[in-house]
Automatic annotation (TrEMBL), chain A:
Residue span, Transcription regulator PadR N-terminal domain: 13-86
Protein name: PadR family transcriptional regulator
One Pfam family in the UniProt entry: PadR
UniProt xrefs under InterPro entries: Metal_resp_DNA-bind_regulator (IPR052509), Tscrpt_reg_PadR_N (IPR005149), WH-like_DNA-bd_sf (IPR036388), WH_DNA-bd_sf (IPR036390)
Taxonomic lineage of the native organism: Bacteria, Bacillati, Actinomycetota, Actinomycetes, Pseudonocardiales
SUPFAM superfamilies: Winged helix' DNA-binding domain (SSF46785)
UniProtKB/TrEMBL annotation, chain B:
Claim: Cell membrane is one of the keywords in the record: no
The protein's name: Integral membrane protein
Keywords tagged on the record: Membrane, Transmembrane, Transmembrane helix
Organism: Saccharothrix xinjiangensis
Transmembrane portions of the chain: 73-97, 117-135, 142-163, 201-231, 243-263, 275-296
Superkingdom of origin organism: Bacteria
Classification of source organism: Bacteria, Bacillati, Actinomycetota, Actinomycetes, Pseudonocardiales
């Protein structure tokens, strides 16, 4: 499996689906919450991403409901999507550790 | 229905049909949920919806979502390509018409006025073989010979229209047609995929485009060709639309040449023009042949957004 970097919206959408299936609006809200309000996805971006993620087999439709006369479709992370998210987490963790090590080795007061 | 919902529906109508049917109502619900208190879509939300529609259309053109078999696309190109290629003879026919009008056809210098005539005659033979006989292999051999003829003209007639890049679309379509007749499932498969009216409609289109091209001018003929090719290939079929894109590669070159001549670089053509003329049809061909999708499949776990 490749360690190519995953873009942030993809990472956040997969993260939003990691613990439980969610519907579209729930994903948007969860992404905002996960990113501490720094990333605010919109519907066009979300459904373009879901189209790709579904085609790649990383997410799948879990179930559908009709709430107040409107269709609500829940998406879930597939095993393949979970494995890809896991590898991204490992990659980011390794990068973070390396960055932390370098920062600890930095002379106090900075370098000239 | 509120004004807000109506406006969002109008924006969602721009999405690819399959996506609209599958996700349209759901997207509408999400858009409305995120627009509480508003009476019309905000500029950011509108731009995001439009950008999403553009990206999904692009994905479908490049077949990144799968669902289009290249072999089927090529089968359609193999059947209809020889017919579309006949439109390329319009310029030469225009010359003949001029000499006939001057009552001097016998004096016409064919080598300078219509040097590519033998190649177009060969494509006419290929079209007849493909459409009206079962001699597919003979048609394929003829198509390869005609494509080689294109290349000879390109190399051997520098300074004229050939050798400048203006005919790149015809050359690419010729090569694709020859390849399709040789390796695709063939015209029989194409007839299964296309509407019944496809061949007669395209014959009428090519005749109309040729007549208009001779009488009025090339761009009018090309406009007719675009409409006819899209109608013949079936607007509702993704395979048909992809094949139409390949069949219209000559139009891509013509439009590029028109744009260059009028807005960018005035004639005469320079080496820069030549490169600019050759690139667009090549890129469209790579896109329509699904090369981006092929590359994406080679790295299935790569970044997706």
């Amino acid at each position: 499996m490749t360690n190519a970097a995953m873009r942030e919206p993809t990472f956040l959408i997969l993260t939003a689906l990691a613990a439980r299936p969610q519907h579209g609006y729930g994903i948007l809200q969860d992404v905002e919450s996960i990113s501490d309000g720094q990333v605010r996805l919109r519907a066009g971006t979300l459904y373009t991403a879901l189209d790709r993620l579904s085609a790649d087999g990383w997410v799948a439709v879990d179930r559908e409901e009709v709430v107040e006369g409107r269709l609500r479709r829940y998406y879930r992370l597939t095993d393949r999507g979970a494995a890809r998210l896991e590898s991204e987490v490992v990659r980011l963790r390794a990068r973070s550790r390396a960055a932390a090590r370098r920062l600890r080795a930095r002379p106090a007061g900075g370098v000239a | 229905m509120t004004g807000l919902e109506r406006r969002y529906r109008r924006l969602l109508a721009l999405y690819p049909r399959d996506h609209r049917e599958r996700n349209g109502e759901e997207m509408l619900g999400v858009l409305l949920a995120g627009s509480e208190g508003r009476t019309r879509p905000g500029p950011r939300a509108s731009a995001d919806v439009l950008w999403g529609a553009a990206r999904l259309h692009a994905r479908r053109v490049a077949a990144l979502d799968g669902g289009v078999r290249l072999r089927d696309v090529l089968a359609v190109v193999g059947l209809l390509g020889p017919l579309v290629l006949l439109t390329g003879a319009t310029t030469g026919l225009h010359e003949i018409a001029w000499w006939i009008k001057a009552d001097a056809l016998g004096d016409m210098p064919w080598s300078t006025q219509f040097p590519d005539a033998p190649v177009w005659v060969l494509w006419a033979v290929v079209a007849v073989l493909t459409l009206f006989t079962g001699l597919r292999r003979v048609a394929a051999a003829g198509a390869w010979a005609a494509t080689a003829g294109f290349l000879l003209l390109e190399v051997g007639l520098p300074g004229q229209v050939w050798g400048t890049g203006v005919n790149t679309g015809w050359e690419l379509l010729g090569a694709l047609t020859a390849a399709a007749l040789t390796w695709s499932p063939g015209p029989d498969r194409a007839r299964e995929l296309l509407p019944r009216r496809a061949v007669p409609a395209l014959i009428a289109t090519v005749v109309a485009a040729g007549v208009l091209g001779v009488l009025v001018g090339g761009l009018v003929g090309f406009a007719v060709l675009v409409a006819g090719a899209v109608a013949a290939c079936g607007r509702g079929s993704r395979t048909g639309r992809r094949a139409a894109l390949l069949l219209l590669l000559p139009v891509v070159t013509t439009l590029t040449a028109f744009a260059l001549a009028h807005w960018v670089l005035p004639p005469p053509t320079t080496p820069v023009d030549e490169v600019l003329l050759r690139c667009p049809p090549l890129l469209v061909a790579l896109l329509a042949l699904g090369v981006p999708a092929h590359l994406a499949r080679r790295r299935p776990d790569g970044p997706v957004t």
